[in-house]
Every structure is written in structure tokens, then in C-alpha cells.
């Protein structure tokens, strides 16, 4: 194969890598800022997260188009084909992460006037910190084609699920204690769920890194802790005093 | 181009179409049965929805692989290239629809022991009926390459969002009226959100049909009614009597 074709093909792959890296940076920043906006009730910051999502959507379309054109023009094989498919997959996950961060930002705008016990928000913040670390690590692993680091990220997703579950129960308890907490806590529940799903997408990216290196999609079960994701909590104490006994907790 | 190549290429495309059609059938059945399981509290039916999702995941991987191989081997142009890209996109949306139906089914298992006022469930059922109709219509439109029918589906998504918003407020009100409703209504809120998101994926498919026909991705804003998606409700009446005044409703 003449040198100039190889080099032009390498340029195409390089360009894809740079676009993915740009998407990764934006998705990280959006996740970080959405969570900060929630804690600080910063509606201006929330607005800027919402605006940033447009760029992420445009980049995803661009990566998808460039990848498909590259496959059609160069008919890459083996590792090069996997690299191109991986670009499509990772850009899809990053685009979804942006949507989830945007959704959190929209909720910040919705609840900016509500009384918010900061203690409840801290649990969400802690979960968000963990997820941001996962996202950073998985993007580094993708850039460095580091399957070991990717596997570490993959394994740590269980911890985020466990945190989500305890937060879910805590938020339900707050709601039962005082009906004035219900509206705010409901939005916080959805924020927590969105952060947990950002974690799922980092796990997807970790699996794509595995596929990129080996050509195999991971078939084992994820280290999920989602059994109590579907927990129920029954009201106790003051809030339920005037009511007949509720159903028992699962 | 020799006939046998053209015919083999057509066979490839036909096979993709059949796989998408199989995925569509499974996604429709899962959406239908998840909602039935919720209304009837049928844990057996919920289990079968959870099992069906594995087949959907496998089909998505198969479609993705076949599509990429087809692009690499045949270097299709224009409409044929778009058909292949559309297969990847639609199979991705159908896989997500399956995930969302599975998530509803898991919640049916979680709340099967809870007291459930049927009236609350009916609102979710009504929303689900609308979404199922959308899904059926968009799959028919995809099979028939019918851009007009696809546009109709696209326009109707706003009605589902509006229904979700009113259900969201209604569920919050139930939670404020009686803390024993909180646990059950929270799961129902997530079920309603999942159904709304199934609606979003049918809208994605409608946009893919547009892209397939014209090569253009729709750029206009979706007819979203999601402003009040982020509504808040404040407690009134008995539940809040012993508490100081809550924040006002947005």
C-alpha cells in the first residue's frame, strides 16, 4: 500500500480520536458543572450546561458520519475496523452522558426556589464525585488503550449502584417525614438516577475498550448492585401517625 | 456489476430488515407486557419481560456487526449507505426501549406487595397505550419507508409529554396526601418516566426514517412539552397541617 494512503488513513483515525477527546472533555465538564449547579443552586451554571449539550450532539453526528465514511472508503480490517466502531459507540455514550447532565441542569432550574436541606444534597454530590472520577478514568483508559484501567472502572460501577440505593432509601424517608420535602426530593431522586446512569455509560465505555483490544464484547454479568434499586420503604413515625399501618418494608 | 453480487447485496439488506422487524416485534411485546404486568400486578409476566430483553440485546449486536461488515465489504453509497446506518440507529433505539420495558418489569416485582390504588395506575396505563400506538406506527412507517406516517409520529410525541407532566403532578399530590403512597408512587413515577422515554425513542426512529429518505437529519426543535416536566407541587391540606407553610408551587 502506498505511503500516502496509509498516512491519510492514519490522519482519519487521528481526527476521530481528537473528536472523541473533545466530546469527552465536554461531557466531563457538563457532569461536573451540573452537580455543582445543584449543590450551589446556581441557575446560571445550569443554563450553561444546557447550552453545552448542543455542541456534544453536533460532535456525535460528526463522529458517526466520519466513521461510516471511513469504513466505506478504506474498508479497514481487524483492529482498525474495531477502532472505528468503537468511536461510534463511545460517542453515543458521551452524547447520552451529556443528555443526563442536561437533565440534571433542567431540574436545578425547576427547584431553585425550593427549600433544600443541604444534607440531602450532599449525598447526591458524593455520588456525583465518584461518577466523575469514573468518567475521567475511563476516558484516560480509552485514550491510552489501557484495558486494565478500563477493567478497574468496570468493577467500580457496583459501588455507585450501592450508593444510589442507599440514597434512594434516604430520600424516600425524608419524603415520608415531611410532605414539604416531597417535590424537592422527587427531583433529587431523578438527579441521583441520572448520575447513576452516567455511571452505566462509563461502564459501557469500559466494555468498548475491552472490545477494541480483543474484538470480544464482554459477556459476563456486570458487578451490579441493583437488587435494592427497586427497594421500597414504609412510612414510620410522625408522618404516618394518623394513618392506618402501611405496607411493610421490603 | 455482476448480477450475483447485486443479488447477494440485496440479500444482506433484506436480512437486516428482517432482523430489525424481529427486534421491533419483541420491543412492542415487551412494552405491552410490562404495562400489563404493572396494571395486573402480574409478577410472572414481569419475569418474562425481563428474560425477553436478552434476545433483544443479542439482536442489536448482530445488526450492528452485520451493518458494519456490509459497509466495509460493499461500500454502499447514498440510499444504500443510509439504509445501513439507519439499521444501526433503529436497532439502538429498540434496544433502549427493551431496557426501559425491563426496568418497568423490575419495578413491578418490587411493588407487588404494596397497596396500590388502581386509579393511580390507570393514568400510567393510558400513557402506555399512547406510546404503544406510537411504537407500532413508527415500526410500520419504517417498514414501509413512509415519511408522512413518520412525521405524524414525530408530531404526536408532545401529547405523551403533556400526559407525563399531568401524571407527574398527580403522583406528587398522592404522595403528599398520604405518606403510605410515597414508596409505591415513587416507583410509578419512574415507570411513567420510562414510558415517556420509550416515546422519545419512537421519535428518534421517526427522525431516522426522515434521514433515510432524504439524507438530512431533522434540525428543527421537537414538539416537546417538557417545560412542566420539571414542575414542582407544594403540599396542601391534611398532610401539611402540622408543618409550617411550604414553598409555593412553581
Automatic annotation (TrEMBL), chains A, B:
Region (Disordered): 215-250
Pfam family, one: PhoU
Keyword Transport assigned: yes
Entry-linked SUPFAM superfamilies: PhoU-like (SSF109755)
Domain PhoU: 20-108, 125-208
Subcellular location per the Swiss-Prot or TrEMBL entry: Cytoplasm
This protein's UniProt keywords: Cytoplasm, Phosphate transport, Transport
Residue stretches spanning the membrane: none
Segments of skewed composition (Low complexity): 234-243
Gene3D superfamilies given in the database record: Phosphate transport system protein phou homolog 2, domain 2
Matching InterPro entries: PhoU, PhoU-like_sf, PhoU_dom
NCBIfam families associated with the record: phoU_full (TIGR02135)
Subunit record text: Homodimer.
Function description: Plays a role in the regulation of phosphate uptake.
Family: Belongs to the PhoU family.
Protein name: Phosphate-specific transport system accessory protein PhoU
Amino acid at each position: 500500500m502506498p505511503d500516502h494512503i496509509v498516512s491519510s488513513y492514519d490522519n482519519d483515525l487521528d481526527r476521530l480520536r481528537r473528536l472523541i477527546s473533545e466530546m469527552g472533555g465536554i461531557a466531563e465538564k457538563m457532569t461536573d458543572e451540573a452537580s455543582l449547579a445543584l449543590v450551589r443552586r446556581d441557575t446560571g451554571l445550569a443554563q450553561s450546561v444546557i447550552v453545552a449539550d448542543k455542541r456534544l450532539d453536533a460532535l456525535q453526528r460528526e463522529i458517526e458520519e466520519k466513521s461510516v465514511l471511513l469504513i466505506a472508503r478504506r474498508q479497514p480490517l481487524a483492529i482498525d475496523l474495531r477502532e472505528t466502531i468503537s468511536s461510534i459507540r463511545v460517542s453515543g455514550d458521551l452524547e447520552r452522558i451529556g443528555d443526563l447532565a442536561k437533565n440534571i441542569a433542567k431540574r436545578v432550574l425547576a427547584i431553585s426556589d425550593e427549600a433544600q436541606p443541604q444534607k440531602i444534597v450532599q449525598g447526591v454530590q458524593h455520588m456525583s464525585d465518584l461518577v466523575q472520577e469514573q468518567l475521567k478514568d475511563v476516558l484516560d483508559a480509552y485514550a491510552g488503550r489501557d484495558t486494565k484501567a478500563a477493567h478497574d472502572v468496570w468493577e467500580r460501577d457496583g459501588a455507585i449502584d450501592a450508593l444510589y440505593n442507599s440514597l434512594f432509601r434516604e430520600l424516600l424517608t425524608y419524603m415520608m417525614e415531611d410532605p414539604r420535602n416531597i417535590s424537592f426530593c422527587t427531583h433529587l431522586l431523578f438527579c441521583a438516577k441520572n448520575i447513576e446512569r452516567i455511571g452505566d455509560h462509563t461502564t459501557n465505555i469500559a466494555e468498548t475498550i475491552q472490545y477494541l483490544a480483543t474484538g470480544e464484547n464482554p459477556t459476563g454479568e456486570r458487578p451490579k448492585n441493583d437488587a435494592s434499586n427497586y427497594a421500597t420503604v414504609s412510612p414510620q413515625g410522625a408522618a404516618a401517625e394518623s394513618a392506618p399501618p402501611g405496607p411493610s418494608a421490603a
